[in-house]
Structure formats: C-alpha cells, structure tokens
Write a structure and sequence with these properties.
A hairpin with a 5-residue loop joins strand 1 (about 30) and strand 2 (about 40). The radius of gyration is 21 Å and the shape is globular. A 3-stranded antiparallel sheet has the order 2-1-3. The chain has 7 helices and 3 strands; from the N terminus they run αββααααααβ. It has a single domain (about 30-240), classed as Ferritin, core subunit, four-helix bundle (Ferritin, Up-down Bundle), CATH 1.20.1260.10. The protein is mostly helical.
C-alpha cells in the first residue's frame, strides 16, 4: 500500500472516530433547562421528572430524608415569597422566578414520591409550612420584603444564597446519585436566580449588591460567570435511567 493511500485511509478513519466521539459527547449530558430542572432522558426520550416515578432500589437514611423534606419546603418558601412580593411590588423578576421555583418544587416532589416519603407540603397554601423553622423564616422574609422594593430584591438574593448553601450541604450528605443529580441541577438554577436578583437590585437602586451569607469569593465567581445552561456530565445522569 503506497504512502498516499495509507494517509487517506488514516484520515477517513480519524474523521469517523471524531464524528462518533462528538455524537457520543452530545448524548453524554443530562438535559436541564435554565432553571436546573431535568427535562429529558437521552436514552429513552422520556421525561424523568414525571408524576408517577418508579421506586428506586436505593435506600435513604434519616439524614437524606430530612434533607429531602427540608429542600421540598425551602423551594416552596422561595416560590411563596416571590409570589407575595411580586404582587406587592409589581416587579416581573418575582413572577418569572416564582414559576421557576414551582419547577424546583416539582423536582423535589419527584424525590419525595420516589422514596415513599410523606409530602410535607400537602395541601398547604401560600405562606403555610409544616416545618416551624421554615415558617418562621418565611414570616421574617416577608416582613423585610414588605418594607421596600429594594429590600424585597435583597430578600430574593438571600433566599437564593441560602438555597445554594443548603443544596451544597445536602449533596455532601448523600451517596445516591439520583438525589445528587436533582440537587446539583437546582443549585445551578439558584445561581442563575441570584445573578438575576443582584442585577435587578443594582439596576433599581444604583447600589452594588453585596453577598448576605455567601463568602465574597464564592459570590464573585457566581456573578462573574454567564447565565448557566445547567448541563451535567453523564456520570451524574446515568442513575436516573434505570427506571423501567
């Protein structure tokens, strides 16, 4: 075989390999929307966040159950605060992000149902919570947010900062990859929300938003990055594909 033919064949084989790698790489990410909510399963094409999830073989311990219950109501707190303050001040950011927080609530409900945990939200209305600590936090945040539109935007910011910290801690306390996947997506979505609140606060007041509970360096890293599409590598996604 002459040299030119060898080079041609090698180039063709390399091209096929690159195309195959690109195709595989395109599949090897979880499908999230900009709110950090799982939208589809690349293997089966089904929605993962469905209303009737199949039970998992994985077991959850008491700490994991406590975290799931807390995050379910914490996402409701965010939604309810934004609905209430949005009605009070007429700022579109609250309306828009309250819709996102409903998606976050639905994501947590999937975990609640998947592991057979009693839902703490139940039929509770806006501003009603089972966990007394979350109820107290809600009341405190609403009182603060009702004082001015600027304070309301700061309330939005601190909710997202707290949410990211709680999700990060919950991720560290579980080895269940399906739980880690949901938490990671929601944490990414909260980063997008925090960028939105900080930007709107600065536009409305002319003042710089200062992190309220996050470390400055962590906050700076979040704010300096662009709006995140919240895609996740396949290793965080595969456990959710075992549903039958």
């Amino acid at each position: 075989m002459n040299r030119s033919l060898k080079v041609t064949l090698f180039g063709m084989m390399a091209g096929v390999f690159v195309l195959f790698a690109l195709a595989l790489g395109a599949q090897n990410v979880a499908a999230f929307d900009n709110d950090g909510v799982i939208t589809s399963d690349w293997i089966s094409g089904r929605s993962i966040i469905d209303k009737n999830p199949q039970p998992f073989d994985n077991q959850v311990d008491e700490q994991e159950i406590a975290d799931i219950l807390w995050m379910r109501e914490e996402e409701k707190l965010a939604r309810d605060v934004y609905l209430t303050l949005g009605e009070k001040w007429g700022l579109s950011i609250f309306t828009n992000i309250s819709t996102s927080e409903q998606k976050h609530m639905d994501s947590m409900l999937t975990l609640v149902e998947r592991y057979g945990i009693a839902d703490p939200v139940g039929d509770n209305g806006v501003g009603e919570f089972t966990n007394t600590d979350i109820q107290a936090l809600y009341d405190q945040l609403i009182a603060r947010g009702n004082t001015s539109a600027a304070e309301a935007l700061l309330v939005g910011g601190i909710i997202e900062e707290i949410d990211m910290i709680d999700l990060e801690n919950a991720i560290a306390r579980t080895n269940n990859e399906d739980i880690r996947l949901v938490y990671s997506g929601l944490k990414c979505g909260s980063g997008n929300h925090l960028r939105g609140f900080s930007r709107t606060y600065e536009q409305q007041t002319g003042l710089q938003y200062e992190p309220q509970v996050l470390d400055q360096a962590v906050y700076d890293a979040i704010i300096s990055s662009s709006h995140d599409s919240c895609t996740m590598p396949l290793k965080y996604f595969l456990p959710l594909t075992i549903q039958s």
